[in-house]
Amino acid sequence: MAVRIRLARHGAKKRPFYRIVAADSQSPRDGRFLEVLGTYNPLTDPATISVKEDRVLEWLSNGAQPSDTVRSLLRKAGVLAKANAGSQAEA
């Protein structure tokens, strides 16, 4: 089972709100997921990103691949730098 960290859309029409989730790559966008890892609200100024850093780092260390958008959000939140620093320390 290939695990992806990606966005699941919630909220009303024209009012998007996203959850950052770990899900099987074969499951639908808003379908079944394994764990909620955070939220992303693009409507606030600036956009609000909240992430459970320890859980995201755990999933990344276990081989989960973030989508392009989630990779960008994690970079802005500073989580991706910690993941890269941790992988370089092990090597």
Verbal overview:
The chain has a five-stranded mixed sheet with strand order 4-3-2-1-5. The protein is built from three helices and five strands. It starts with a strand and ends with a helix. It is of the alpha+beta class and 91 residues long. It has helices at residues 53-61, 68-77, 79-90, and strands spanning 3-12, 15-24, 35-41, 48-51, 65-66. It has one domain (3-90): Ribosomal protein S16 (S16 Ribosomal Protein, Chain: A, 2-Layer Sandwich), CATH 3.30.1320.
What number of domains?
Answer: 1
CATH level-4 homologous superfamily: Ribosomal protein S16
Number of strands: 5
Radius of gyration: 13 Å
Q: Give the class from helix and strand content and strand pairing.
A: alpha+beta
- Note the overall shape: flat
What pattern of helices and strands is seen along the backbone? EEEEHEHH
Q: Strands across the major sheet, in which order?
A: 4-3-2-1-5
Task: Please specify the SSE layout and strand pairing.
Elements: E1 3-12, E2 15-24, E3 35-41, E4 48-51, H1 53-61, E5 65-66, H2 68-77, H3 79-90
Parallel strand pairs: 1-5
Antiparallel strand pairs: 1-2, 2-3, 3-4
